[in-house]
Amino acid sequence: MKPGHGEVLITEGDIELAQDEERLLEEFRRQLDAGLWAAVPFHDDAGRRQAQMVRSFADVPRDADRVIFFPRAAGGR
Amino acid sequence: MLLALVATALVALALLSEELFPRVEELWSRHRARRRLAPPTPYDPGRERRAEQRARTLLRSCVNEEEWAMYRDLGFIRVWGSQSDGPVQAGGTGGAAYAYLLYPHRAIVAYLAQTHRLLSEYCVAFPDETRPYGSARLPDSDDVLAKWMALTGDERRLISTANMHLPGRQLDPTRVKRDLWRLSQWERARMRDAARSAASSPLDAAG
């Protein structure tokens, strides 16, 4: 998510391919280094949708469709 | 006479040039710098509308069908709280069920599900720290989605980050109570529709 733009595709690839995985990992780190938060939407056992906040690439489930990066939360007024 | 005047003007110009040229050069470079600072692309009045459209699509693809319908029809999403004793710093709920209302670019409101008593407001923003000159806001639906992801993913973390206030600081409690009433009416209507379609399904199948 990008202020003023909405959703922007950063990169995509197949996690099972080493070259793609490396690119995804690199981009993941770059986004977190830029101060963004990352979340993975998923269905829980009851079928309800939730999000999982991920702090490292290893936390991303292997079968995740996407990781959404968004600006870090801060206390507002 | 004329020749003398022209010669005098030339001499005066030559003497002043040392003073004038740097100033002219500076003014010219300022003018060019101002032109460089101008946005490279012209203002696009449809950009924010398209951003909001993309954000709505993304929100819809992430949240539950009921939550999406709630946002579409009422303009906010309810998220159930998961802490056993209520939200952090809210004084405890004694185990009573509570929930949050998520409005775009407004405070998150926590309330008791049974009595609709408002517990607190949590002011939270998602500023883009990567932009050097401050930032435009997230589209409305992205702001709601960011709150939804952060709340369902790590409620405690988001609520600890937010600035907590008593109800009424940013959102009019009367309006919030009215929204809770609208929500209950909306849920009843959905249940009626669901019951009606469930009742008519066997007939449809038989007919």
Short synopsis of the structure:
The complex is a heterodimer of chains A (77) and B (207). Chain A has one helix at 18-33; strands spanning 36-43, 49-54, 68-71, 74-75. With 77 residues, chain A is an alpha+beta fold.
What does this 3D model show about the protein?
- The complex is a heterodimer of chains A (77) and B (207).
- With 77 residues, chain A is an alpha+beta fold.
- Chain A is 21% helix and 26% strand.
- Chain A has one helix spanning 18-33, and strands at 36-43, 49-54, 68-71, 74-75.
- Chain A has a three-stranded antiparallel sheet, with helices on one face.
- The two termini of chain A are 22 Å apart.
- In chain A, 26% of the residues are buried.
- The model of chain A has no long low-confidence stretch (mean pLDDT 90).
- By secondary structure, chain B is of the alpha+beta class.
- Helices cover 57% and strands 12% of the residues of chain B.
- Chain B contains five helices and five strands; from the N terminus they run αααββββαβα.
- Chain B has a five-stranded antiparallel sheet with strand order 1-2-3-4-5, sandwiched between helices.
- The interface between A and B is large, with 28 and 44 residues.
- β4 (74-75) of chain A pairs antiparallel with β4 of chain B.
**How much strand content do the residues of chain B show?**
5-15%
What's the pLDDT, averaged over the residues of chain A?
A: 90
**Terminal Cα span of chain A:** 22 Å
User: Count of helical segments of chain B?
Assistant: 5
Strand content of chain A: 25-35%
How many strands, what sense, and barrel or not for the largest sheet of chain B?
5 strands, antiparallel
* Poorly predicted segments of chain B: none
Give a quick account of the main beta sheet of chain A: strands, pairing sense, barrel closure: 3 strands, antiparallel
Note the main attributes of this structure.
heterodimer, A: alpha+beta, three-stranded antiparallel β-sheet, 1 helix, 4 strands, B: 207 residues, five-stranded antiparallel β-sheet, 5 strands
